[in-house]
Amino acid sequence: MSRRPATDAPRAPGSRRARRARRARGFTLLECEVAVLIFSLIVVGLAKLNADHDRLLAKVEDWTAGDPIYYVVRSDDPMQRLAGVPAVLSVDPPPAPGPPPAPGNLTVTVVSLELVLDPPSASALAHVEEP
Amino acid sequence: MSRARRGHGARPSARAGFTYLELMIGVLVSSVIVTVGTLAWRPISANTLALRDRARDVAEMRLAVEALLADLGGAETALPGPDGNELLIVREQAVAELQGAWDAGADEGILYSLAGDDLLRQDLALGSSVIIAQHLLQFDVVRVDGIETHVSLRTGTGLEERSVELVWPQ
Asked: Structural domain tally of chain B?
């Protein structure tokens, strides 16, 4: 049966005693600098994230800047209105409506007509003449 | 008793723990750090919440405007409603017929109104009702000179206040 020696003989560098001795010395300036650097990077990253969010939001709400007035302009094409095409916003007022058509009947001349069975369709070329 | 047996070579005072003075200094330093952190966190948190509110408000206003544009795209008239700050949109006959809202030779229309801070869209012909947008503080509808309908929307307060005005020129 062997007994452990009770002496202060130097141990290997990786032993528990050596690690405890290193901890007792505190931290070095280099370790402190690294910690400060990492902390600074985190703070700068968060600040940049906040600034980017602010800039992106300013771009998103750009259309409301300065309490604007928008004119609602709907499509001139009745088929588009029937199909549910939404109106659009315009900063310029729409042009005034044109003069009413002259009284009397229009003269409509069908120049050509094309009918197709498959798919079923029809197209015509017409000439419209005002009285 | 040898030093090696008592404390693996360390001084007896170093192995006895920390003193009351060290404890007090530790508590003081921790308190300062926590106080500084709290003071710094408050404006950061307020700024983050303000950004969130701004994003929400502008998104809600955009939703309201897009819903209005969708209905005004096929509208025949858009006039103030019977109870003041309401907008009554009457569809064109063809649009109303396609949507099944043409009844007895007329379309009862779509009524936009502000209920609390919710913008409500009621299809009077179809009997449907839906909240289009929230957190709106103002929805004013005014007929100007008998030729234009002005719709004002406002959201947010203070520096975060945003407003737009839509003009229906018919």
From this structure: 1
